[in-house]
Amino acid sequence: MASIFGTDLTLWAIFNLTIALMLAFDLGVLNRKPHVVSTREAASWSTVWIVIALAFNWLVYSWFGEEKALAFLTGYLIEKTLSVDNMFIFVMIFSYFNIPAIWQPKVLKWGIVGP
Fold this sequence. Notes:
The protein is mainly α. It is 78% helix and 0% strand.
């Protein structure tokens, strides 16, 4: 099925462009105005992004087979675990510097896009 897209380089370009667009949408559109993020909102958005990743995993399985899909899923689960670990570090840093909850998303945003 990879022949639909041409070369592996084309697939990587499509993948990277999609990730960049989703990141820009998340940081530039969804989180434009500062607000305190509730547990419900955080859980809802986490669910949305997990569903998108699982849908992509299904596409990988459909196009490239079980081995590549399992490799993607394994990498995704490891990265998800590491991101949860990072949340504890963020909480410690925000507590130490007394960052108000309303500004925490903006600080994280600059941490992602900044140098």
